[in-house]
Amino acid sequence: YSPLAAAMTTCFAVCHPKGPDACLRAAVGSNGLWRLNFDLTGPLFRLGDRSVNYRMPGAITERGDWTDFFKTESKFLAPKVEFRPLRDTNVFLDFQFLDQKISGNGFQDISYPNLPRSEFDRQLGLARSLGNKNNKFRWSGPDTYERTRARIALAEVTQKVGDRLTLVASVQNQFRDIARRRIVGQGVQTNNAGTPAEFRTPLLTGGGFDAIRYEWNDDGTEVATDSVRVEGNYRFDLDLPLSGASVHSRGFGRQDVKETT
Description:
Shape: elongated
Number of strands: 14
Number of helices: 0
Largest sheet: 12 strands, antiparallel
Helix content: under 10%
């Protein structure tokens, strides 16, 4: 975000030597920025002489910028759990969730070949921010957007076999859903009243009115990915001067991807 975004940040932290930790951060700033971060971690419960540990970071953010209609909203959550059911066995579960929407992200320029020439006698061909300052005006209005909803789930088991061999097996599922409304055509048609979306403006010519037209479509993409991985790491010593332990690794995996549009 902009350099002026973090105008105020506050953090509250509670820590215990053998208990849960929690941290909450809040920030507000320019262009409508506000952000809330949290991070919780600690033992969830105990299984015999071992504990089940968790961590849950997350964030909620909303911000804009100096242009009209633009806004970003996002929510993120990433809970994790780790425990040891046996002395040499570690289980790690990781989940991530994201919901982000960017709205008002359409065009700021209009294709218009009849603009007057510049002071250097060049044909401009684009109308930007007429009647406005600082290039903030957005001709496309607030209709465009792109929303991404994604999730990741990972389960990983690490098994130590003896003093030298470590085996790692994991499965992972990823899913991403992108929905959007995009501008597929825009331009200027003088005195045209039958376009899919239009508004009339005297800003371009100074005399009479022109109809600014644009068309959009709603489309989306879904991508699902499943993967499996098995890895072995073997530690051995090299009987050479100035050499220590070395690790030899071998891994195998498979990944399937399905995309729907």
